[in-house]
Amino acid sequence: MGADVRFGYGVSLDVPFVGPIARVHGERIKGIALDSSGDVAFQDLRLFAPVAGGDVDGNPSFAHGLVVRAGSATLERALVEDTFEVAIDVRGGDLTLADVTIRRARERPCAVDTCPEAPGGIGLGAYFDATVRAENLVVDGADLCGVQLAFDGAIDLIGGTIRGATVGACVQVDGYDVRRLAGGVRYEDNGTNVETTSHAVPEAPPPPTL
After folding, report:
1. How far is it, in rounded angstroms, from Cα 127 to Cα 36?
2. Where are the domains of the chain?
3. Angle 96-97-103 (CA atoms, 0-180°, nearest 5)?
4. How many CA atoms lie within 13 A of 201 on its CB side?
5. For residue 125, with 0-12 CB atoms within 10 Å meaning exposed, 13-18 middle and 19 or more buried, which class applies?
6. Burial class of 18 by CB neighbour count within 10 A (0 to 12, 13 to 18, 19+)
């Protein structure tokens, strides 16, 4: 476990870990990067974008709250706010969410000029065979997709609310059963609630350098 100063990680893990990271309400922790073959559990967190404004060395792509590349992880009772590109980005392995709120998942700053084809602004993304189960997930304000699944990623939503997104759920897996995204979920004030889309999948953020 360590920190990556260059990309602003508050916590980066490449070993098994189980237990609370923070129990103090209002404690703010910079983004977590997880690349572990073991089981990891996080509880009672408030995560925010690791880079103010989403720009590091001229590259505005990495400002995520949580990145999971491998292993099995659980995040309970968490607030993820003011991120860029993807708030919770699952690139492999399994992630279970319970009572997690995502606020203000913003597009990349370069979307206005140099990267309009890949703006980001996604609350929860599951890609490349990743699987996510989210109970009572709230996504409140996503510039593009409340949730996005692509390249055989899978998301199951149980309860919760997705509001204020251009598209509530961006489905980019052929034949995906959209009922898996509707288990008691409230879709409110979205441009479209659930739609088959072809939006660009954000690039993977770089691995941490410890």
Report:
1. 17
2. 2-196
3. 145
4. 17
5. buried
6. exposed
In the numeric block, which tokens belong to residue 90? Answer: 């699952």
**Mind listing the pLDDT tens digit for each residue in 12-59?**
444 444 454 433 233 455 567 666 656 778 888 888 775 544 444 444
Contact 188, 160 (CB under 8 A): no
Residue located via tokens 């073959």: 37
| pTM, to two decimals | 0.84
Tokens of 16: 């098994």
What per-residue confidence (pLDDT) applies to 210?
Answer: 41
Q: Quote the CA–CA distance of 32 and 13 in Å, as a whole number.
A: 8
Rg (CA), the chain: 15
CA separation for the pair 101, 51 (Å, rounded): 20
Q: Please name the residues in contact with 143: beta carbons below 8 A apart, sequence gap of 6 or more.
A: 105, 106, 107, 119, 120, 121, 165, 166
Which stretch of DSSP H or E encloses residue 114?
none
d(CA 160, CA 131): 18
Residues 6+ apart with CB under 8 A from 33: 4, 9, 11, 12, 13, 67, 69, 205, 207, 208
Positions in the chain whose pLDDT score sits under 70: 1-31, 33-38, 50-62, 111-117, 205-210
Burial 95-115 (b: 16+ CB within 10 A, else e): bbbbbbbbbbbbbbbbbeeeb
| Token pair for 140 | 């409140």
